[in-house]
Write a structure and sequence with these properties.
Layout: H1 8-31, H2 36-46, E1 48-54, E2 60-61, E3 67-80, H3 87-98, H4 102-109, E4 120-127, H5 129-145, E5 160-169, H6 177-180, E6 182-184, E7 192-194, H7 196-200, H8 202-206, E8 209-215, E9 232-235, H9 239-256, E10 260-266, E11 273-278, H10 292-295, H11 302-305, H12 315-325, E12 334-336, E13 339-342, E14 345-348, E15 356-358, H13 360-365, H14 369-379, H15 381-390, H16 420-426, H17 435-446, E16 451-452, E17 457-462, E18 465-468, E19 473-475, H18 480-496, E20 509-519, E21 522-536, E22 543-550, H19 558-576, H20 582-590
Parallel strand pairs: 2-9
Antiparallel strand pairs: 1-8, 2-3, 3-4, 3-5, 6-7, 9-17, 10-11, 10-22, 12-15, 13-14, 16-19, 17-18, 20-21, 21-22
Helix pairs in contact: 3-4, 3-5, 9-19, 12-14, 12-15, 12-18, 14-16
Length: 591
């Protein structure tokens, strides 16, 4: 039979049938081939792409929701070498728009394409979206005049690419810099927080990072998975109080010719840090320009990282211990002769003077070293150091900030302890603390005997849930009665001496401190640490303030240098915290 006699549709059916049979036979051959195992392995190995997904770093806010640390989208700019047509045009464009070095970019963009080694080169990073828009517009313009970049005489930006990623930003620049710390991109995949909150809560902020397999088969490819954002932190800091305290501190350091300074504001009832300021500070957005702050031996945050001899503010702990143990009362008499022998060593007052008949209020008012050394001897070394242990001296507060330091407390039996230490330690010499450590200890006096743990985190938000920090009472070193008695004593002593720490309309309690600094193993009266710790209002303390100025030049005395700074801070605090004057507040309570 001739093929011409077969209808066309029947001929088509025969051809398709034969074709289908051939396909079926080929499928059977492939399935039974010895290469099938190799093909399966190849598909498993090369049919997917490994990608790393990283959470967006969590945000940091103050207690009222003001952003202190966040992220913005920036770009990495580079070249895919196989597509580069005109290296000089790329170098000229980036030099003009980004300020990059023309010669360096030209050399990089001129690198020969080598699939084994040279495929892509980064030219710039952390480029703003505004600059990328300019680069994109220029690239489009060149493309219109020189499609595909084929004319070497015309400029072309072919091969120039940009990839978005996130950059850590600090909208308030230097505000709370010593508390926040910073996030550094030493490696895009290995960035980490340094210092402060960024380091302490790095894992919580970072979220997760994991590798996932993405199928390259378009029939199997699914939406690329994303990682949930890292936790966002709500701090106890009040942005306006922090800003105000920093301004006061900066003015005080400058006016008094001090080397540096620190101020802490804390709620004595729950340990929340409302402000924590230290000098020097830096713009966290350009932390790399201020290397000296953390490489020349200067602690990043002196409030938690630098120990020093506090001097007379330490006397509040000595007096608290003696009152609580019952060895003295506010009315206990003491005849100050100007010196006392403790452990075979003679101890003098700060002015080398004798103040005669005093009671314990007078001893605190005039800050008499001799009197407090006598008080410590009445307690005895066992009881004295037991109380210091209760107050946490020699131990970390475990505040939730990176870099907290501590100085061991020498006690009887230690190789470096001598009997005279009982006397000198009583007025803050030969013992070292950080500001936050002494502030925590003093919180027991301001908070009815209950010592609270200081903390900077109020809450964190993770996966849509908010987790709030609770107040931690870490001890009760003294009774409520002792705390109230000593608070009244300290308030009275300030009033009787007409201290510069007094705040009109508000009754406050507190104590100054002047500590000589050891120079070449000898204490120098020309170099001191001037401090003040106080709280108020006395009947219902809502704030504690710690002031420390290092080596002030205007005066060596804490009463002259630090006490006025306390007053300046409190005058602003009562407004920012909306605390009415005592007479109005107490009359409102009466109603």
């Amino acid at each position: 039979m001739n093929l011409r006699d077969i209808p066309r549709y029947k001929l088509l059916a025969i051809v398709l049938t034969v074709f289908a049979v051939l396909i079926f036979l080929q499928m059977i051959r492939i399935q039974t081939s010895t290469s099938v195992e190799y093909l399966d392995q190849w598909a498993e190995k090369y049919g997917v792409e490994v990608r790393t997904i990283q959470s967006e770093r969590g945000y940091i806010y103050d207690r009222w929701g003001h952003l202190l640390a966040g992220n913005k989208e920036v770009y990495e700019v580079g070249v895919e070498l196989q597509f580069v047509k005109n290296p000089s045009a790329i170098a000229a464009a980036l030099s003009s728009l980004l300020g990059t070095d023309y010669a360096q970019v030209l050399a990089a963009a001129s690198t020969p394409y080598d699939p084994a080694s040279s495929v892509y080169i980064t030219l710039a990073d952390f480029v703003s979206s505004e600059k990328i828009t300019e680069i994109s517009n220029l690239k489009d313009q060149y493309e219109k005049n020189n499609p595909l970049g084929e004319d070497p005489a015309l400029p072309s930006l072919r091969g120039l690419t940009w990839t978005p990623h996130l950059q850590r930003i600090y909208p308030e620049h230097t505000l709370a810099a010593n508390v926040l710390g910073f996030y550094t991109y030493y490696d895009r995949d290995k960035g980490a927080g340094y210092f402060g909150v960024e380091e302490k809560y790095n894992d919580l902020l970072a979220g997760i990072k994991k590798e996932v397999l993405i199928s390259l088969d378009p029939y199997e490819m699914q939406e690329i998975p994303t990682a949930p954002a890292g936790a966002s932190l709500i701090l106890t800091l009040d942005r306006e109080i922090q800003r105000t305290v920093e301004n006061i501190l900066d003015q005080a350091v400058k006016a008094n010719g001090a080397e540096n300074g620190t101020i802490i504001v804390m709620n004595p009832k729950n340990g929340e840090i409302l402000a924590m300021a230290s000098t020097p500070r830096m713009d966290l957005n350009t932390y790399w320009e201020a290397d000296n702050i953390y490489t020349d031996g200067t602690p990043f945050n002196k409030a938690v990282s630098q120990v020093y001899e506090p001097g007379s503010i330490f006397k509040i702990l000595t007096m608290a211990a003696a009152l609580d143990a019952g060895v003295v009362t506010p009315e206990t008499p003491f005849n100050d002769t100007g010196s006392i022998n403790v452990g075979g060593i003679t101890i003098f007052n700060w002015d080398r003077g004798a103040w005669g008949e005093q009671d314990m209020i007078g001893c605190m008012q005039h800050s008499l070293n001799v009197c407090l050394a006598w008080v410590a001897t009445q307690l005895g070394p066992t009881a004295f150091y037991d109380y210091l242990e209760r107050f946490g001296i020699g131990h970390r507060t475990n505040i939730d900030l990176a870099g907290e330091e501590v100085y061991p407390l020498s006690v009887p039996g230690d190789p470096m302890w001598y009997p005279v230490n009982l006397g000198t330690n009583s007025f803050g010499q030969g013992v070292a603390v950080t500001p936050i450590q002494l502030l925590m200890a003093a919180s027991a006096i301001a908070n009815d005997g209950k010592m609270v743990a200081p903390h900077i985190l109020q809450a964190y938000i993770q996966n849509g849930q908010q987790y709030t920090t609770t107040t931690q009472v870490v001890g009760m070193p003294i009774s409520e009665k002792t705390a109230d008695t000593l608070t009244q004593m300290l308030a009275t002593s300030l009033e009787q001496e007409a201290s510069d720490a007094l705040v009109e309309g508000y009754r406050v309690a507190g104590k100054t401190g002047t500590a000589e600094i050891a120079v070449n193993g000898q204490y120098s009266s020309n170099a001191t640490n001037a401090s003040f710790v106080g709280w108020g209002p006395v009947d219902d303390p809502q704030f504690m303030v710690y002031v420390w100025l290092e080596k002030p030049q205007s005066s060596i005395w804490g009463s002259v240098v630090a006490a006025p700074v306390f007053r300046d801070v409190v005058e602003e605090l009562v407004v920012l915290m909306n605390i009415p004057p005592d007479d109005i507040r107490l009359s409102m309570k009466g109603k």
